[in-house]
Design brief:
Keywords: Iron, Iron-sulfur, Metal-binding, S-adenosyl-L-methionine
Number of domains: 1
Helix content: 25-40%
CATH architecture: Alpha-Beta Barrel
Number of helices: 9
Domain Radical SAM core: 60-171
Order of helices and strands: EHEHEHEHEHEHHEEHEHE
Strand content: 15-25%
Protein name: Radical SAM protein
Largest sheet: 10 strands, mixed
InterPro entries: Aldolase_TIM (IPR013785), MJ0674-like (IPR040085), Pyrv-formate_lyase-activ_prd (IPR016431), rSAM (IPR007197), rSAM_sf (IPR058240)
Shape: globular
């Protein structure tokens, strides 16, 4: 059985929809087995230890197995943007980003394409790819997909969106999000271990967990941060993000989310993290909640 056979009766994400993506069906992720990429370019807006001065070699894959109602990348998450490419072309894209000076290869929402990406990475490494590989994922990840990618991934960059099953059901149609994310993060830590940085402060190995604060959900955010620190301490980095950007056409049914995070709420959450002892972390300053921070998904580099 080849890796690509996993697209038949697909169970690469926790939805386990069993779509025959190999033969053109689409499941919850909206994607058949054919690779679809919306952008491949140097990305300057990640955490400092990822982007650095040169930028992260970000490859944005179309489709998503979470489907958050507030997604700021909804054009690609729903599969509306992107270009279909071969596995061989993806391997070339990785090498082209390396030539451009990228600090790393940053796989953005890759899980539903895990078999194809693993094959492309193997090809690219055989042709000289030597950059750290980052898996920039939702946290709502199956162990099947993570195991496929783990032979190639050096740095895990998962989201950890929710503690409450009520919130994860309401906003991501995933009442099991917390359980799945806990299992996924444990797997990532066992694979990557403690963080390692090069002489320029660029991460080479380890885990950075992102938590996006949502309007009106500060108590849930505190529970997420408390859990992460209680279980992993300073063995991981926690990135507390204030960049929630309302997307009006998606939020008509969720008026409580139709505004940004207040500075006072965000500052209080950061103070909470400091008070419980979080030392390895990242915070965002300034006006990050702007649509101008969302890259254009115009097939650049594809």
């Amino acid at each position: 059985m080849s890796l690509l056979d996993l697209y038949t009766s697909c169970q690469l994400c926790p939805r386990n929809c069993k779509a025959d993506r190999q033969h053109g069906q689409t499941g919850f992720c909206h994607m058949p087995a054919d690779l679809k990429v919306a952008r491949a370019a140097l990305h300057m807006w990640e955490e400092p230890c990822i982007s650095g001065k040169a930028g992260s070699g970000a490859v944005f894959f179309s489709g998503c197995s979470v489907g958050c109602v507030f997604c700021q990348n909804h054009a690609i998450a729903a599969g509306q943007s992107g270009k279909r490419i071969s596995i061989e072309r993806l391997a070339d894209i990785f090498l082209e980003l390396q030539i451009k000076g990228a600090n790393n290869i940053n796989l953005v929402t890759p899980e539903h394409y895990a078999p194809s990406i693993a094959l492309a990475l193997a090809m690219a490494k055989a042709m000289g790819l030597h950059l750290p590989i980052i898996c920039n994922c939702s946290g709502y990840s199956s162990l099947t997909a993570l195991r496929i990618l783990s032979d190639h991934v050096d740095v895990w960059l998962p989201d950890f969106k929710y503690y409450s099953p009520e919130l994860s059901r309401k906003y991501s149609h995933a009442p099991d999000y917390f359980t799945v994310a806990c299992q996924a993060l444990q797997f990532m830590y066992e694979q990557a271990g403690d963080p390692v940085f090069d002489d320029n402060g660029i991460i080479q190995k380890g885990i950075i967990v992102r938590h996006l604060t949502l309007p009106g959900c500060m108590e849930d955010s505190r529970k997420v941060i408390h859990y992460l620190h209680e279980i992993y301490g300073d063995k991981i980095y926690i990135s507390i993000m204030n960049q929630f950007t309302p997307v009006s056409e998606l939020l008509s049914d969720y008026p409580e989310l139709n505004h940004t995070i207040s500075a006072s709420d965000y500052d209080a959450l950061v103070d909470y993290a400091i008070d419980i002892g979080v030392e390895n972390g990242f915070i965002q300053e300034g006006e990050t909640a702007k649509e101008s921070f969302i890259p254009p998904f115009d097939n650049e580099g594809v």
